[in-house]
Every structure is written in structure tokens, then in C-alpha cells.
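anyone seen this seq b4? input:
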Amino acid sequence: MLCQFSFQNFKSYKGETTLDFQAAALPEFQDTLIAEENAEKLLPLSVIYGPNGGGKSNLIRALSCLIATVVFPVQELGKNRQHIILQHKVNAVPFLFDEISDLEPTEFRIYFRIEKNEYCYYIALKNDVVISESLYRKAITGKKTAMIFERETNDITLGYSISRKSINVSVNPKMPYLSFLAINYDIPVVNEVMMWFESCIIRSYANPMIERQIMLTDNASYKNQFIHALNDMDIDITDYRYDDEQNQLFMKRTIGSHQYELSFTDESDGTKKLIAALPVILLALREGRLVIIDELDAKLHPKLLRYIISLFKNKDINKHGAQLLFTSHDMNTMKNSVFRRDEIWFAAENEAHESEIYSLHEIRGEDNERIKNTAAYDKQYMEGRYGADPYLSNMLGNEFDR
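predicted toks r here
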């Protein structure tokens, strides 16, 4: 489970930026939090709002870059421990709007929890070369942190849990040492960490090709769950089949006593989006994975988006601590009946063209008080009170008002 992600000097982000999945001390939706004994409660989801060009997608890309950097070398050599669902590799591009950042490394730091342990992985990259890297672990009930390994350019130090003469500490400067260990050795702690990175699901529906990548199976229980979820959203599909000769997916509907088939390409855009997105969402829920989706709301009716959100908030369905991180423009779901205040994030550029993010919980009004959980979040956002100003007049310039 993701606890916290920090990065700096990546695309439109210059300074250190932190996205936090650790739940704040808020009264709302307590029963939806991921809770484990003696551990900090975690959020089941977070959504990022903001204007076009504000940095929403770049935040998703930053996390995608870190995950892909670690898992792609393993996948390319066929050493991955489970099926990896990543769209493509994202390069570590530094901040673009000054002359200094290009000379500095891009840095990523991520905290995540696996059963009774919390891990911290850090990597700094410059021109695809690993400048610094480390992996630490501590028990969620303890305060003492154990070093698994540390790396400063070519100097690698092994911690007690993996230190042995047979482990090579000489590695290609462009290869993460975590990936190197996962490829060449069978080390329990490394296997556990790599399994977590490999389990992360990344999709971007800004790319229309992704809607054609459909992960359906003939497994009866998976098929029933998928069809049941579609029916819950008033999409009356009763079955599906894949025709190998036509290389086409067909969705079946029963009307009266007759069954009809409709090819996937003939479905509405919203239904096609759901058919493509729902399998990976259900997979995440079944296995407790982190799923990261850019533009989840594109082509979806707000009712359908709200249903997907509810799956992650329902502990009877989300039994294994699955988490969802997505970007959205949909104001119909920016409600106090849908989200906690610490689940809503905003991305926007400042005057120096640097992207920044902040949660609704962090915002204070003119009276220096926090936004109340009874507020009309969507209305206040459209009034420009939250900083990530969506005003059309701002986007077109002041002349629009004249």
C-alpha cells in the first residue's frame, strides 16, 4: 500500500513535491480508511483536480517514471514475478523553465507498506544514470530503521539482511541496484519489494489506444464479477466472447427471450471506456494493488465514475487494501458526500511556471480556518477559492470580461 510519494525536478515540478496517502485526523468517512493494527491509517484513493497544464498528468508521470525505472529492466529480461501492467516507460526529464535544473538530478522517494513492514525507496537520476539510491525497512510497530542497501554513484553498501560475499556490488551505472538484485538473486526482502512495484497498475486514457487494450478472461468467477459490475452501472451486458477469426470482442445482451451480440467497436464511447478500465480496477481490488489512472473520468458519466470510487471505499469489496490514484475534471463528484478533504488534491502552476500540489485539507480560508467538511467543494472550487483556478476568463485572459 502506498503511504507517501515525493519527487523533485521532474517536468513541470521543480521543488520537492509530496503526495500523501496517510489519512489526516478528519471525522468524515472513517469507515472507508485502510486500517491495520498499530499502523497509521491510509487512504483508499486520491483524486487530482486542476486546470489543463497545471501538472495533474505530470504528477502521474512522475510516479509512473519511478515504477517503470525499477520494473522495466526486470521485465525486459523476463525476470518479473507477476504480470506487469504499465503503459510505457517514462523518462526522468528535469524541470524545463530554468538553466539550473537541467544540471541537477531528478529525485524520487516512495514509502509503501507490505504486511507488517514499511519500506522507503529512494533514487536520483541524471541523464538516465543512477546518482544515488537506497532501500530501507522498518516494522510498522517499531521505530528502528534497517538499511537494505545504499548507493552513491559506484559505491554500494549492503545492509545486514542481504550482506554476503556472493552478492556483486558492481553494476551498470544506468541500472537501479534494486532491479539488479531482483534479476540476479533470490533474496526474500528484494523479492517482496519488487513484487510490490510490479503489482502497480498504470493506465492513461489520454491515449485512445489504451481503450483497445482489454484484459478480459473466460474464468467464470472473473467473468461473473465483471458482468455484475457492469449491470450495477445499468449496462445490461449478459456475456461476452472473443472471436479469434474476426479478431473482435463481442458483448452479449438478452432482450426478452432473444440474445443479441454487439461488437466492441460498435459500443458507445463510455461503454468502451468501462469495458477497458473495469478489468484492471477489479484486478486491483481482488489483489490489493495500487492502480494509477490519468483521465479516469474521460467519457464516463459522473454516475459511473462515482460507482468506481465507491468500490475502493467499500471495505466489503476492497478487502485487501487496494488504492486508486486518478486525475479528473469532473465537478459532479467533487462532493463532501464522495470524498474526504484529504483525498482531494489540486495541481496548478505558480508565477514561475512551477507546478505545485496541495490537498483540500491544507487550504485555509480568509478567516484562517480550514475548509469544513460541510462545504460545497465543487461550488467553492468554481468560485476560485482553492487556488487551482478553473475560470474560463483566467484561461482566456482579462479581455474576456470586457
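Helices lie at 56-76, 177-184, 188-199, 220-232, 269-287, 302-313, 377-382, 392-396. The chain is about 25% helix and 25% strand. kinda curious what u guys think
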